[in-house]
Specification:
Elements lengths: L1 H33 L79 E4 L17 H4 L8 H6 L4 E4 L1 E3 L5 E5 L2 E3 L3 H13 L5 E6 L3 E2 L2 H17 L3 E2 L12 H7 L7 E5 L14 E2 L3 E2 L4 H20 L12 E3 L6 H9 L4 H8 L1 H10 L8 E4 L6 H27 L10 H43 L16
Parallel strand pairs: 1-2, 1-13, 2-6, 3-7, 6-9, 8-9, 12-13
Antiparallel strand pairs: 3-4, 4-5, 10-11
One 2-acetamido-2-deoxy-beta-D-glucopyranose (NAG) binds next to α3.
Length: 478
């Protein structure tokens, strides 16, 4: 009897409890499926089977499918996540934040902050992301929504990766995963959007062109090139002289399409800022989606990387080259394996760690010195806050830059007595002037001496044969 009881207890522990736990974990799924028509619990937490996006726009994470920025778990009523039950949040940039104007127009293009949507084409994937029955999509999709939506979320540059298929269509891809949206259709959305945004500029960064065969890859390259030109996008070539003088205002004029905003395409970035150590998971104990203690090391890594990029002096801005900073987690095979074991996905790692929100906060707090292209994942999660912080930053930056320039050009009234620096400058200049004039006098003296020597000897050497007048020596006609 005792034996029997122990056996049953063991059975319960080994099978029944995990099964019940699994069922209860699926309960939010059932609840949201059953109550979906009622609309009450829809997307309060993410589901296991759906696209994994909650009502507040963040992505579901782990067995509990918890959403939101930060950490927490969903209870059976889907209301236990950080900040409680999730409601729809408008992810779009406010229209009054848009419009490049004033001092922003005079900023060099490589000192103007721009959100670059990391692999923008993945936003067209309709279903297979953050759904743990489709692990490949989880770590290939890094955006949500079409290009129009990404523009509305604050993106102003797109990382476009064309893929030429055997059937002849030019679509998009991320690594080996292909997204069945035509590059042409996606770029057409940008044109339509620019029509209603004449004071904005958009950069299309074309890279990693791929295809079903080597030949198709080549075709894909020339087709992408022809396509952007036909559509009216202007090419920006990093090595061209005009980049050194390219201000935001000049870019708006140069790239203007019809009466709309400006559209550019580029094939290279001056510097792409790739740093593989900035990943979501590191070692056994660091995780960007774990407890606060587990997150610390990862946040520190990201923060130090950003400070190095934005505050370091490694970019010679005067060369006009664009430079990009990757403000998103980097993905190695190990990081992806860890993420899969936690039922995570790229979108969830961005939203749960709230890296876009933290970036916006850091920029708004004035922690950075200069910003250009900033590549982010999931621009429709807090991208609007990054956009707002960047535009505010750009206005403050321009004000400071141009007021400083005025100071620099204003000649001090009393330069002579202005300080040791000027005095030394004058002393050096005076000494230099004396040296140069002494040298010049010496050279003149020496030249005179040589000329007399030369003419003396020269005449003897160049004396024409008897009876033949040299052309050179022919007297001018009267
Ligand atoms: C982009 O996506 C939104 C939301 O799904 C949709 O309303 C809109 O029609 C799409 N735009 C285009 C041009 O496909
Ligand atoms: C980012 C975030 O919201 N972290 C919270 C996770 O939960 C702990 C308490 O358990 C909070 O202190 C953190 O602020």
């Amino acid at each position: 009897m005792g034996f029997m009881q122990t056996g049953l207890t063991t059975l319960a522990a080994a099978v029944v409890v995990p099964a019940a736990a699994q069922l209860s974990l699926l309960f939010p799924d059932l609840l949201s499926t059953v109550l979906y028509p009622v609309g009450q619990f829809e997307r309060c937490c993410g589901t296991h089977l759906g696209d994994g996006i909650c009502q507040d726009g963040t992505a579901a994470l782990g067995f509990t499918r918890c959403c939101g920025h930060g950490n927490g778990t969903c209870n059976v009523f889907c209301c236990g996540c950080t900040r409680g039950c999730k409601h729809f949040e408008d992810y779009r940039v406010e229209p009054e934040w848009e419009g490049i104007n004033g001092a922003l127009l005079d900023l060099p293009l490589n000192e103007f902050p721009i959100i670059l949507a990391h692999d923008a084409g993945t936003g067209y994937e309709p279903r297979y992301f953050c759904n743990h029955y489709n692990p490949i999509g989880n770590y290939a999709v890094c955006q949500r929504g079409n290009l129009t939506e990404q523009l509305n979320c604050g993106a102003r540059a797109f990382d476009i990766r064309p893929y030429k298929k055997l059937d002849g269509s030019l679509v998009m891809h991320h690594g080996g995963t292909v997204y069945h949206v035509l590059v042409k259709d996606a770029l057409h959305e940008v044109l339509v959007w620019l029509e209603s945004h004449p004071d904005e500029l958009v950069i299309v960064f074309i890279q990693f062109v791929s295809g079903d065969t080597q030949e198709l890859i080549e075709e894909g390259r020339s087709e992408s090139n022809a396509l952007v030109r036909e559509m009216g996008f202007t090419m920006l070539k990093m090595e061209d002289w005009y980049m050194r003088q390219m201000t935001v205002g000049k870019a708006l004029e140069r790239g203007r399409i019809g009466h709309g905003g400006a559209g550019f395409f580029i094939y290279e970035l001056g510097d792409d800022g790739y740093d593989p150590s900035v990943s979501c998971f590191a070692g056994w104990s660091e995780s960007c989606i774990g407890t606060p203690a587990e997150r610390l090391g990862r946040y520190t890594a990201m923060h130090e990387y950003l400070v190095g990029r934005f505050n370091g002096d490694q970019f010679p801005l005067a060369d006009g080259l664009l430079w990009s900073t990757q403000a998103h987690w980097q993905y190695s095979a190990a990081a992806i394996a860890t993420g899969l074991s936690r039922m995570s996905c790229i979108l969830a790692e961005e939203s749960a760690s709230d890296i876009n929100g933290l970036l916006a906060q850091d920029i708004a707090q004035g922690n950075y010195k200069r910003i250009n292209l900033v590549q982010i994942d999931y621009v429709c999660d807090s991208g609007k806050h990054v956009f707002k912080a960047m535009r505010d930053f750009a206005h403050a930056y321009a004000e400071q830059k141009f007021s400083r320039a005025e100071e620099k050009y204003e000649v001090p009234r009393d330069a002579w007595r202005a300080g040791p620096c000027y005095a030394r400058g004058f002393a050096i200049l005076a000494a230099g002037a004396v040296a140069v004039s002494t040298l010049a006098a010496g050279i003149r003296l020496a030249l005179g001496h040589f000329r007399s020597l030369w003419t003396g000897r020269g005449e003897a050497q160049r004396a024409p044969p008897d009876g033949q007048a040299s052309l050179l020596e022919r007297p001018e006609p009267q």
